Amino acid sequence: MVSENSTTMETGELIENPYRPEQFTEYMSLEEIISSASIERYAVAPMEEGFVEGGEVFYADRLAFGLVQGELLYVESIALEVE
Fold first, then answer.
1. For the chain, how are helix, strand and coil distributed in percent, rounded to 5?
2. DSSP 23
């Protein structure tokens, strides 16, 4: 559904994202992701109970990805804007 009162957001210059889709393949392990994306630090949070059993969400620099039973099933890069 599109609102009749929608407005366009002005965006500034985006910081180049260091990640490319070809770096990631379905079912990669955490170790493979860390190596492929040169991740130095990350935070991990378990999925909400009852949402995805055995799922965890990881957050790294401009990257979020989800593992289920230790295998990659979701990856998203996060765009940042130059201040």
1. 15, 30, 55
2. G
